[in-house]
Design a protein that fits this description.
It contains 3 helices and 22 strands. The chain is mainly β. It has a 5-stranded antiparallel sheet, with no helix packed on it. The protein has a 3-stranded antiparallel sheet with strand order 1-2-5, with no helix packed on it.
Length: 273
């Protein structure tokens, strides 16, 4: 008699974009491993993938049809994010119903406990040419010049900074930072030369006491988060930059410090009904 194979039990996970305009449920075996890809868009958006997921087990609970699609290169996949808050939710290949899910959007999932399998998407041709931003300035010869951008190139910047490897980079676990995988540095505003600011959309869902003090700016076309526009009274002269938006950055060499923003925001993250 043939040995029967055990079928893993399924668990119902619920997830959402940060603002809650799009919400879903999905039935999957308990998560143990996710895929981190280093291709141009996955690196900038910090996707953690579960792929493929059958469309039969994925249910849209709210916001069906609201996600915005972005394609590039060979246009084999539609990358879908919320147009209100910019959260990257999923990808869907052309010609098939299966989806790839960004597990960062799953509620109450401990990402630190998951095994991360790497995928060398950067090796796939054609190679990505990072958008060229402002010409490097020579305002301070003691600093290094870094160029960065969203993925599509509508938003670009030049940063004058100490070497990134010498800086402390913040990895915050608050609701929006964890969901979008930000890595923050905090240069002064005059150290950042920004082009295409009109293409940014700012989403505020980070609270301290009862005041919104941060507008997380993402490109409305490709959904890549670039910077954080802080309230001038609370943080004068500072323009936090998402390190993932810096072109060619090597994250392995950075000094990354965990920040417990989830506890310190002063107000719990609660979705509006």
């Amino acid at each position: 008699m043939a040995e029967e194979k055990s079928v893993p039990s399924l668990k119902t996970y619920r997830g959402n974009c940060n603002c809650g305009a799009f919400r879903y449920s999905v039935k999957l075996p308990p998560f143990e491993e996710v895929t981190a890809c280093n291709c141009s868009i996955c690196a900038k958006k910090s996707y953690l993938w579960s792929f493929p997921i059958s469309a039969d087990v994925f249910v849209v609970e709210k916001g069906d049809g609201t996600l915005k699609s972005y394609e590039f290169g060979r246009k084999k996949m539609m990358h879908k994010c919320c147009p209100e808050c910019g959260t990257a939710v999923m990808g869907q290949m052309h010609g098939g119903p299966d989806i790839g899910l960004n597990v960062r959007t799953i509620q109450d999932l401990d990402l630190d406990k998951l095994k991360k399998r790497t995928h060398d998407g950067a090796a796939i041709e054609p190679a990505y040419d990072a958008p060229v931003g402002p010409k490097p300035s020579i305002a301070d010869a003691s600093k290094q010049s870094y160029r960065g951008s969203c993925h599509c190139g509508k938003v670009t910047f030049e940063l004058q900074s100490e070497p990134l490897n010498d800086l402390e980079v913040t990895d915050c676990n608050c609701n929006i930072c964890a969901r979008n995988g930000y890595l923050w540095i905090y240069p002064s505003s005059d150290a950042v030369q920004l082009q295409g600011e009109e293409s940014l959309r700012h989403h505020s869902r980070y609270y301290k006491s009862d005041d919104k003090v941060a507008g997380h700016g993402f490109c409305f076309t490709c959904g890549v988060f670039v910077l954080n526009k802080l309230g001038p009274e609370a943080h004068p002269g500072i323009m936090p930059i998402n390190v993932r938006a810096i072109n060619g950055v090597n994250l392995d060499g950075l000094k990354i410090k965990k920040h417990d923003g989830k506890t310190l925001t002063g107000k719990p993250y609660v979705l509006d009904e």
